[in-house]
Amino acid sequence: MEKKVNQTHITLTQGDITQQHVSAITNAANSRLAGGGGVDGAIHRAGGPAIMAECDQIRQERGGCPTGQAVITIGGDLYADYVIHTVGPVWEGGKSSEPELLASCYRQSLKLAVENGIKTIAFPSISTGVYGYPMEKAAVVAIEAVTLFLKENERFSEVRFVLFNADDLKQYQRLFLSNQPKI
Ligand code: AR6
């Protein structure tokens, strides 16, 4: 399933983020850029040590990456040329600026992509694993944030949401069909 915002195709697929043939994939990282489980573990396993070497350097220079922000590294052994590492909020019930911070993850990742001439980018569902953000709420924020960004920015050919399981994909598909996501 897909929809178009200006010249950009927003597409939905079920699969593994590490297997996407796009210019950049996004990592659901932690603020130390220290690696971990879920998407983060899969990306470092598939992409090899060159990605962590750049994360180490960013940590030394800047102390890591704050929640809601993003940094970029090479893609190592991945198909993707780049990995954009963004740090989602930990879900604490929704009253600790989680929606704003999650929206910021998508915006800042897209902004970094624009700065690096990236035209195709894939996102996993940030914060909805270890960080506990409810999937149905996170999907609304993700689609809304990306759509708003693309309305003001025509540099991408594709933004792909990669959902790990069928239920998560269905959640996104429902929102695409309703066409009027509200945060
Ligand atoms: N491809 C696509 N989606 C995936 C994959 C994959 N290979 N693996 C898991 N998912 P998570 P978070 C889905 O936990 O919640 C790490 O330890 C998964 O089903 O990866 O932002 C970091 O180091 C879920 O829907 O990210 C941080 O400490 C979604 O991706 C922390 O976890 C996000 O799950 C970040 O937690």
Secondary structure elements and pairings:
Layout: E1 2-5, E2 8-14, E3 24-29, H1 38-47, H2 49-62, E4 70-74, E5 82-87, H3 98-115, E6 120-123, H4 135-151, E7 158-163, H5 166-178
Parallel strand pairs: 2-7, 3-5, 3-6, 6-7
Antiparallel strand pairs: 1-2, 4-5
The structure holds ligand AR6.
Residues 16-18, 28-30, 36-40, 42, 88, 124-131, 162, 164, 168 line the site of ligand AR6.
User: Which cofactor or ligand species appear?
Assistant: ligand AR6
Strand order of the largest sheet: 1-2-7-6-3-5-4
**What is the typical, i.e. mean, pLDDT?**
96
Unreliable parts: none
Report the count of strand segments.
Answer: 7
Structural class: alpha/beta
End-to-end C-alpha gap: 22 Å
Outline type: globular
Strand content: 15-25%
User: Secondary-structure element order, as H and E?
Assistant: EEEHHEEHEHEH
Radius of gyration: 15 Å
Q: How much helix is in the residues?
A: 25-40%
Largest sheet: 7 strands, mixed
If helices are DSSP runs of H or I spanning 4 or more residues, what is the number of helices? Answer: 5
Structure explained in plain terms:
This protein is α/β, with parallel strands linked by helices and 183 residues long. It contains 5 helices and 7 strands. It has a 7-stranded mixed beta sheet, sandwiched between helices. A hairpin with a 7-residue loop joins strand 4 and strand 5. Helix 3 packs across helix 4 and helix 4 crosses helix 5. The model has no long low-confidence stretch (mean pLDDT 96). The structure holds ligand AR6. The site of ligand AR6 has 24 residues, from strand 3 and helix 1.
